[in-house]
């Protein structure tokens, strides 16, 4: 039987390894758009970057509501859904810093600066989402 994760458990779960998040944003017509993202937790904030001219970037500029799902697709199956509202920044120093930290998580420390330089550029958005709702379940199939 599924069990609710504690605050400490869901934070550890979403931060473990290189799990990607499936980010849902709201299109102009109100329909959902889902795309995978690399991310980090920074205190109570979810942090990621995206191109300003991508579908998710345009959606976030217009409507900051988001949901992010992170799951383990192996039995007994665990998942976390985080919801909140995005705040956007185009500050190049912040972008480069966070792009490098995110790159380190997913590609290793030795490539962090490469990803910071690649993704911390004009036309990118730094996205911070203060998490205001969490649904976190473990052992869904038990």
TrEMBL record:
Domain Pyridoxamine 5'-phosphate oxidase N-terminal: 7-136
Key word Oxidoreductase present: yes
Record keyword Oxidoreductase present: yes
NCBIfam families: Rv1155_F420 (TIGR03618)
InterPro entries found in the cross-reference section: F420-binding_dom_put, F420H2_bilvrd_red/Heme_oxyg, Pyridox_Oxase_N, Split_barrel_FMN-bd
SUPFAM superfamilies in the record: FMN-binding split barrel
UniProt protein name: PPOX class F420-dependent oxidoreductase
Source species: Streptomyces hyderabadensis
Keywords: Oxidoreductase
Organism phylogeny: Bacteria, Bacillati, Actinomycetota, Actinomycetes, Kitasatosporales
